[in-house]
Amino acid sequence: MSTRARAERQRAGGTPARADRREVLGFASAGLLAYAVDLALFTALRGPAGLGPLTAKALSFVAACTVAYAGNALGTYRHTRPRGLRPYAVFFLVNAAGAAVQLLCLAVSHYGLDLTSQRADTVSGAVVGMVLATVLRFWGTRTWVFRQEGRVGSWTG
Whose CA, among 54, 69, 99, 156, lies 20 to 30 Å from 136? Predict the structure, then answer.
């Protein structure tokens, strides 16, 4: 690890393990807030606003991505100083890839494995899919959006 990378890590929270823990907790906090925005806005747009499910979900997804980006840019990764629209565009693409992973898990379970109950759909899309999507989002966010000089793409080094 370069001297500059060590200095950045020290500023981010001390020891490598502590910095990694702070990064994961910050990322999770921004994600939970974004999830709450997504759910609340989707519910409001579907119910009182009367929008269709796809329109409501598209709008709530964009709003949630914006909240997650702001939370990560101003909180978790504030020391990387992202500039311009490129980081947000890449962040949005990483989150869209995560959404695709969730849909793929649901599609494989529901149509490929013929597990069609409400419980199976929930487990495949909202549990298995969410876990895999979150790992992808964390890796993509730290690797492509909020890169640190001297840091490798993996969170182990």
Answer: 54
